[in-house]
Amino acid sequence: MGPMRMTLLASPDFGSDIVPFPQDGRPPPPEHLSLEEAETWKATVGARKAGFFGPEIFPLLEAYCATAMICDRIAAQLRELDEIDHEAYESYDRMTRSLADLAKALCLLPEGERTDA
Fold it and tell me: Which of 5, 50, 56, 86 is the most buried (most CB within 10 A)?
């Protein structure tokens, strides 16, 4: 089968319901994601071959995008601090470990990359 093209399917049972399929085979970000999360989704999906992420993986991919944005927000807060905030650093550490775990589960890390070090 060749590359995916924009396909419209209409079912006689559902009248004029039309289901569009992405032309390049990459899923668009869900509408409920924030702008930043959607950009992370697009960058992540765009970095892999078309069809790499199926619908069964979307919840993990959404969690990855949300966690990446949380890490960015905490890092920005830490950069603004004049004094060390141990609680913020611990939170950042937990979130970055979670991000690495999600990246590993999504096969986003280069082969041989360790997240347990």
Answer: 50
Helix then strand then coil, % of the chain, to nearest 5: 50, 5, 45
Which DSSP letter does residue 107 get? Answer: T
Q: How far apart are CA 111 and CA 93, in angstroms?
A: 23
Tell me which DSSP letter residue 29 carries: P
Tokens at residue 110, please?
Answer: 């280069």
Q: Burial code of 34-52, b = ≥16 C-beta within 10 A, e = fewer?
A: eeebbebbbebbeeeeeee
**Which tens digit of pLDDT belongs to each residue from 84-105?**
889 999 999 999 999 999 999 9
End-to-end CA distance of the chain: 42
Say what the pTM is.
0.74
Length of the chain, in residues = 117
Residue linked to tokens 């869900």: 30
